[in-house]
Write a structure and sequence with these properties.
mainly alpha, Rna Polymerase Sigma Factor, Chain: A, Butyryl-CoA Dehydrogenase, subunit A, domain 3, 2 domains, two-stranded antiparallel ribbon, 9 helices, 2 strands
């Protein structure tokens, strides 16, 4: 995503998002130093953290929410990060702490607007598709190499994703899409490592079990 988010001095104790080019002299500075300066009253330095991690935040959100809400959600995430900065525990890296806030805010979106609905097909992203393609690759048949079959595969993948619970999707996103270890995902989510491991494995196996029979049935008709 090409959008650049920046922060101007807030009038009411929270960052205001604008667009600007970032300076580059801070790139090797430690996150903790920047956080401490912001906490000491240099609020404009929060823009350095935003510039450093905006693409990372966009990537996480894009794996969970529809593209049209990614930028707005990123702004909400950075506002919450700014307001919660005093709660940051430096025993966890700032990046992992930021990931946790980003994931929780993204899933708050689904809880608010789709409380009684599953994630729609339009919310599936290329990263979801690519990951799930990898999961079921050992079941794939030749017809899925054709463009027409790719569309059918997309519908099957949507069918499988819709059957996952919200918490299983969160575990799947962090462990399989974002590449966090089970231990890192557990810290981000405030869950036990066993809970994360079970949910991530269960969601992957559930998708395999749901899709494999459909692929076998389809192959029998080719």
């Amino acid at each position: 995503m090409a959008t650049r988010l920046a922060m101007t001095t807030p009038a009411a104790g929270s960052p205001v998002m604008t667009r600007s080019a970032a300076n580059i002299h801070w790139q090797n500075e430690d996150d903790l130093n920047i956080v401490q300066r912001v906490l000491n009253g240099n609020r404009n330095d929060f823009e350095l953290l935003m510039t450093r991690y905006q693409n990372y935040v966009f990537k996480i959100i894009s794996g969970i929410l529809p593209n049209e809400v990614v930028e707005e959600m990123a702004q909400d995430v950075f506002i919450e990060v700014y307001r919660s900065l005093s709660k940051f525990n430096d025993q966890m890296s700032f990046k992992k702490w930021l990931a946790g806030i980003t994931v929780h805010r993204s899933y708050d979106y689904w809880r608010r607007y789709y409380r009684n609905r599953e994630v729609p097909l339009s919310a599936l992203t290329p990263s979801h598709q690519e990951w799930i393609d990898g999961i079921i690759s050992h079941h794939a048949t030749e017809q899925f190499e054709r463009d027409e079959a790719r569309q059918e595969a997309s519908e099957l993948l949507d069918y499988a994703l819709a059957d996952l619970s919200e918490k299983d999707r969160i575990a799947l996103t962090l462990v399989y899409l974002e590449g966090l270890t089970v231990k890192e995902a557990a810290k981000v989510l405030g869950w036990s490592a066993i809970n994360v491991r079970v949910r991530a494995h269960r969601s992957r196996e559930k998708m395999r079990q749901k899709i494999a029979p459909l692929l076998q049935k389809e192959g029998a008709h080719v």
